[in-house]
């Protein structure tokens, strides 16, 4: 599945887990696990608890996501 096929949802980082996973609370109060996308890892963009992020969620498995953008 390409990144263009993912549904973009905004949320807030509520916990940083081991292995590069983050727990995200979406705007609709659903909590999912997400990991950083490749470009965020490549350019060392840091995500900390409390940051607002855009998460790409697959329509086939909405319990996992991919953090694609960190808002200011």
Automatic annotation (TrEMBL):
SUPFAM superfamilies in the record: Nucleic acid-binding proteins (SSF50249)
GO molecular function: ribosome binding; rRNA binding; translation initiation factor activity
Annotated keywords: Cytoplasm, Initiation factor, Protein biosynthesis, RNA-binding, rRNA-binding
InterPro entries named among the record's database cross-references: NA-bd_OB-fold, RNA-binding_domain_S1_IF1, TIF_IF1
Compartment(s): Cytoplasm
Domain (S1-like) ranges: 1-72
Gene3D superfamilies: Nucleic acid-binding proteins
Signal peptide: none
UniProt-listed CDD domains: S1_IF1
Any single GO CC term annotated in Swiss-Prot or TrEMBL for this entry: cytosol
Chief site of localization: cytoplasm
Function: One of the essential components for the initiation of protein synthesis. Stabilizes the binding of IF-2 and IF-3 on the 30S subunit to which N-formylmethionyl-tRNA(fMet) subsequently binds. Helps modulate mRNA selection, yielding the 30S pre-initiation complex (PIC). Upon addition of the 50S ribosomal subunit IF-1, IF-2 and IF-3 are released leaving the mature 70S translation initiation complex.
Subunit relationships: Component of the 30S ribosomal translation pre-initiation complex which assembles on the 30S ribosome in the order IF-2 and IF-3, IF-1 and N-formylmethionyl-tRNA(fMet); mRNA recruitment can occur at any time during PIC assembly.
Family classification: Belongs to the IF-1 family.
Protein name: Translation initiation factor IF-1
Species whose genome carries this gene: Bdellovibrio bacteriovorus (strain ATCC 15356 / DSM 50701 / NCIMB 9529 / HD100)
């Amino acid at each position: 599945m390409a990144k263009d096929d993912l549904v973009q949802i905004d949320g807030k980082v509520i916990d940083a887990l081991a292995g590069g996973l983050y727990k995200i609370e979406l705007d609709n109060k659903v909590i999912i696990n997400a990991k950083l996308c490749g470009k965020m890892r490549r350019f060392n963009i840091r995500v900390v608890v409390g940051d607002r992020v855009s998460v790409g969620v697959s329509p086939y498995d909405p319990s996992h996501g991919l953090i694609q953008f960190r808002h200011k």
